Amino acid sequence: MSTVTAPRTQSPAPARPRARLDWRLRFGALSLIWGFSFLLIKVGTEGYAPFQVTLGRLVFGTAVLAAAMAVKRERLPRGARVWGHMAIAAFFLNALPFSLFAYSELTIPSTLAGICNATSPLWGMALSMVALSEDRPTRVRVAGLGLGFLGVLTVLGAWQGFHGLDATGTAMALLASLSYPVGWIHVRRTLAGTGNSHLSMTGAQLLLATAQLAVVTPLFTPFPDHFPVVPLLAVAALGALGTGLAVLIQYGLVAEVGPTTAQMVTYFIPVIATAAGVAILGESLRWTTPVGAVVVLAGAALTQVRPRG
User: Fold this and answer.
1) How many secondary structure helices (H) and strands (E) does the chain include?
2) Fewer C-beta within 10 Å: the chain N or C terminus?
3) What gap in Å lies between CA 38 and CA 36, rounded to an integer?
C-alpha cells in the first residue's frame, strides 16, 4: 500500500523523496493483471482440477500478502467476532467466486468469463438497494441497471435461443460475479470501523479462504499424480500476481487517487480478457460478444453515478 508523503521540514540534508511509480502505470498494470487472470484460469484448468487451481491461487496470493505484512510489521486482526465475519467474507469474496470461475472455464471461453465478471457492479447496485438503506436508487442508476442486463442478454445471444452457449458454465460465471457484491455488503455491514488496516484484513481474509479450500479440495479432487509445468506456472502467476500483488496495487491506488478512479479498472478487465482469449488462446468471437460487453460496461458505469449533494 502506498503511503502519504510527509511534509517537508527544513534541514541541512533533506531526505530524498521515495520514488514511486506513477499511478497511471500502476492502473494499467492492474488492468492487465486482472484482465489476464481469466486466461491464466483457463490454462490452469488444463492441467489441474478447478478446486486445485483455486487452492493454488489462494496459497500463492496469501504468501505475497504475508510477505508484505512481514515487511510492514502488520499483525493479523484479533477477536472471535472479527474472524467470524471475515470467514464469511473470505467465502463470498474469494473461495466461492474463484472456484466458480475455475469450474465455469471448463466449458465456456475465458472471454465470456471476463465479460460475466463485468456484471458485478450491476449485481452490486441491485443488492445494495435492498440491503443498504443509504444506497438509494436514482433514475440514472436504475436505467444503468436495465441497460447492463440488456447487454448481458446481448452477449448471451438471447434472441437466438442462447445457441451454442453452455448454460451451466455461464450460470457459474454470473454467480461468481454476484458473489462479490454479497461479500462486500457483508463487509460494509459488519467489519467497518474495526481499526485494522486493509492489508491486515485482506491477509487474514485470504488465509481463511485458503483454509476453506484446503478442507474442501481433498474431498472432491484426488491428489494430482503429476504436475504439468505450464498450468502450474499459470496458477502461480494467478495467485502471486492476480490475487496477491494486484490487491497491494489496488489499495495503493485507492489511497492515492480515491476509490472512484481506482474502481474504473473494472471497465478495462473484460476488454483485456477478450483480447487475450482471442489472440493467445485462439477463442472464437461472435459480434454479440464485444457489442454486448460495451452495453454491459455502459450500464455498469451508470450504476456508479451518485446524486449530487
Assistant:
1) 14, 0
2) C
3) 5
Strands of the chain (E only): list them: none
Considering only CA atoms, which of 49, 38, 60, 74 is closest in space to residue 206?
60
Dist. CA 214–CA 270, nearest whole Å: 30
d(CA 129, CA 125): 6
Q: What is d(CA 171, CA 65) in angstroms, rounded to the nearest whole number?
A: 31
Give the model's pLDDT for residue 214: 97
Give the contacts of 9 (CB within 8 A, at least 6 positions apart).
Answer: none
Confidence band for 9, pLDDT divided at 50, 70 and 90: very low
Burial bucket for residue 14 (CB in 10 Å: 0-12, 13-18, 19+): exposed
CA atoms within 13 A on the CB side of 57: 33
Determine the Cα angle at 140 with ends 136 and 141, to 5°: 50
Residues near 50 by Cβ (< 8 Å), separated by ≥ 6?
Answer: 99, 102, 103, 106
Residues composing the chain: 309
pLDDT digits (tens, 9 = 90+) for 151-194: 777 777 665 555 667 889 999 999 999 999 999 889 888 887 77
**Residues 6+ positions from 187 with CB-CB distance below 8 Å:** 85, 89, 93
Mean pLDDT, rounded, for 262-274: 83
Instruction: Please tell me the pTM assigned to this model.
Output: 0.85
Question: Are 213 and 62 spatial neighbours (Cβ–Cβ below 8 Å)?
Answer: no
| DSSP per-residue letters across 193-258 | T----HHHHHHHHHHHHHHHHHHHHHHHSPPPSS--HHHHHHHHHHHIIIIIIHHHHHHHHHHHH-
Instruction: Answer positive or negative: Cα dihedral of 183, 184, 185, 189.
Output: positive
